[in-house]
């Protein structure tokens, strides 16, 4: 199945705005590959490990994570790796360009659980 934003010539994509995660991944062990940005090919494997009834006001919540999200349109995995290399090396030929291009204060090693929780809660509403 393909979930996304169908266009008028597309009768096989399921409108992502009309389904919930619970409908797509209804039980423990259910899995899918989430492809974000087909041009940059960010693929995420999602697997349901547990299902718990929780207070809606307090969840979802991000408990942990690693590294900052790559900036939009950074060129996929290889582009992100190149960005990280250039930012880390002030002598790199592209260092200044990458510092200017990246969002202000961007640190690829940083992960913000509060920001991740806020984004997930916004998407869940």
Give a written overview of the molecule:
With 125 residues, the chain is of the alpha+beta class. It has a domain at 1-51. 29% of the residues lie in helices and 14% in strands. It contains 4 helices and 4 strands. The protein has helices at residues 21-24, 76-88, 95-101, 113-124, and strands at residues 2-4, 13-15, 31-36, 42-47. The strands form 2 sheets. The chain has a two-stranded parallel ribbon. A two-stranded antiparallel ribbon has the order 3-4. The longest helix is centred in the middle third of the chain and has 13 residues, at 76-88. The radius of gyration is 18 Å and the shape is globular. The protein starts with a strand and ends with a helix. The model has no long low-confidence stretch (mean pLDDT 88).
Sum up the structure in keywords.
two-stranded antiparallel sheet; 29% helix; alpha+beta; two-stranded parallel ribbon; 125 residues
Offer a quick outline of the entry:
This protein is of the alpha+beta class and 125 residues long. The chain contains four helices and four strands. It has a two-stranded parallel ribbon.
Q: Give the count of helical stretches.
A: 4
Average pLDDT metric: 88
Name the poorly predicted regions.
none
Biggest sheet statistics: 2 strands, parallel
How far the N terminus sits from the C terminus, by CA atoms, comes to 23 Å
Total number of beta strands: 4
Question: Helix content range of the residues, please?
Answer: 25-40%
Give the overall shape. Answer: globular
Radius of gyration from the CA trace?
A: 18 Å
Percent in strands: 5-15%
Element string (H = helix, E = strand): EEHEEHHH
Helix and strand content put the structural class at alpha+beta
Major sheet: order of its strands?
1-2
């Amino acid at each position: 199945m393909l979930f996304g934003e169908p266009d008028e010539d597309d009768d096989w994509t399921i409108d992502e705005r009309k389904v919930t995660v619970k409908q797509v991944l209804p039980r423990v062990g259910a899995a899918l590959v989430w492809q974000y940005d087909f041009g940059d090919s960010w693929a995420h494997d999602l697997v349901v490990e547990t299902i718990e009834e929780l207070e809606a006001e307090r969840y979802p919540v991000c408990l942990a994570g690693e590294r900052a999200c790559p900036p939009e349109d950074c060129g996929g995995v290889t582009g992100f790796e190149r960005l990280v290399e250039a930012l880390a090396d002030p002598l790199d030929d592209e260092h200044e360009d990458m510092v200017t291009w990246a969002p202000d204060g961007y640190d690829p090693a940083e992960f913000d659980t509060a920001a991740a929780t806020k984004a997930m809660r916004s998407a869940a509403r």
